[in-house]
Design brief:
There is one protein chain. This protein is an alpha+beta fold. It has a domain at 59-96. It has one helix and five strands, in the order ββββαβ. A three-stranded antiparallel beta sheet has the order 4-3-5. Strands 1-2 form a two-stranded antiparallel sheet. Strand 3 and strand 4 form a beta hairpin. The chain is elongated and about 70 Å long.
């Protein structure tokens, strides 16, 4: 992840020309000391390999976007109600395509 320090924000102009409410001296209202970029991602595939039995053809997706066979996941949930990959509570997002 990118750390930006000393008020340098990527993509932002170096100086800000304010409207009628800006100070005449051009002083900044605040200074950005540190900025941490954060990103999220998820799989966007229709067919992947089931992490439990290692066979293709997905049937059930969780809210975490991990996909498994419905029969594999129903057996897994009986022992542990968490996603086998990310350990989030298992909640079905969708079944089928």
């Amino acid at each position: 992840m990118a750390d930006v320090e000393d008020g340098e924000e990527p993509g932002a102009p170096a100086s800000h020309s304010g409207g009628s409410g800006s100070k005449a001296s051009g002083d900044k209202m605040f200074s950005l000391k540190k900025w941490n970029a954060v990103a999220m991602w998820s799989w966007d595939v229709e067919c992947d390999t089931c992490a439990i039995c290692r066979v293709q053809v997905m049937v059930v997706w969780g809210e975490c976007n991990h996909s498994f066979h419905n029969c594999c996941m129903s057996l897994w949930v009986k022992q542990n109600n968490r996603c086998p990959l990310c350990q989030q509570d298992w909640v079905v997002q969708r079944i089928g395509k």
